[in-house]
Amino acid sequence: MTISWFQAALLGLFACLASMPGLGGSSIGNYTLGRPLVGGLVCGLILGDVKTGIICGVAMQLVYIALVTPGGTVSADVRAVSYIGIPLAMVAIHAQGISASSEEAANLAKSMGTLVGTIGTVLFYGTATLNLAWQHIGWKAVEEGNYKKLYKVDWLYPWISHLIFSFIPTLIMCKLGASAVTALQEALPMDGIAMKTLFTVGALLPCVGIAILLKQLVDKVTDFVPFFVGFTLAASLGLNLVATAVVSLIFALIFFEIDMAKIKASSAVVAGAGFDDDEEEDI
Hints:
The chain has about 280 residues and is an all-alpha fold. The protein has helices at about 5-15, 25-35, 35-45, 50-65, 80-95, 105-145, 150-185, 195-215, 225-235, 240-280. It has two domains: about 5-200, no CATH class; about 220-275, no CATH class.
């Protein structure tokens, strides 16, 4: 598999759109197009291999499933993971002759995504730093009463930041990086220590993402029960991700109904107590 300049340019464009708040807000930009799960589909369509793109996206999403940016602090940039890491992982999988549905392909994708995601933090902070210049222009426009200029500050000038720190790096890394990945095919054979180490590290990376997610969700020991039940069902019955998601939906509905029943019961008790107090006052 090779990546043409046109394909690399399309990937760079989506890297810009994935981090542009103006594109329907962060919900459509960063939190939709920027997610590896969605980026895998986009990369698969652009590179002509949807299956491999989705598999790489799913594998990388596990690693960054609980990634948040509190106060603008990021440990990895999913924009780079989605539109640099996934294309390079797809090229590496084809170059090594690995089956896209194999465990080795998923582990290779995780390792590639983690490497690029760390590098992507430089692009993230570079974009934020350059945006400070546009912010100063906006404050100056407000002081001068030139409010129409704020449209340029909000919609035009940030594109310069993203073209410099999103489009151009993605274009270059996807085009030249693909050639470099292909050239490493002979230098790093599948049965070599380097590739085995890469696969081993990649297999462990989802544990980090799941652990971070559990730290945010688990409040008490009993919260682990549905979590372990899902793993038990997957291991014993051989359920795939879709079937496991359906089972988790059932658990979510059960817990929701239990919580709603508790709220209704508490409301009834409070209402009953209030009624008795009124009756005593009337007497």
